[in-house]
Design brief:
19% of the residues lie in helices and 38% in strands. The chain is built from 2 helices and 5 strands; from the N terminus they run αβββββα. The protein has a 3-stranded antiparallel β-sheet with strand order 1-2-3, with no helix packed on it.
Length: 63
């Protein structure tokens, strides 16, 4: 999958765990993996302000 991600220009992959109500963000190079369960901050290059996702709010209505 890493070769395909690199080919497509994907810099990171988000894995959403609905049971644990959290996201794991991994760089496609495999060198970093961050698990977030409160707020997820995403700041792609070229964007002035980062996007902050409140995971508790997002997961609230998901059974």
């Amino acid at each position: 999958m890493t070769a395909l991600n690199n080919y497509l220009g994907v810099a990171e992959v988000w894995i959403v765990d609905l049971e644990q109500r959290r996201c794991e963000v991994s760089g496609v190079d495999g060198r970093r993996s961050i698990v977030e369960d409160g707020r997820l901050r995403w700041h792609p290059s070229g964007i002035a302000q980062p996007l902050e996702l409140d995971l508790e709010t997002i997961f609230r209505d998901i059974p």
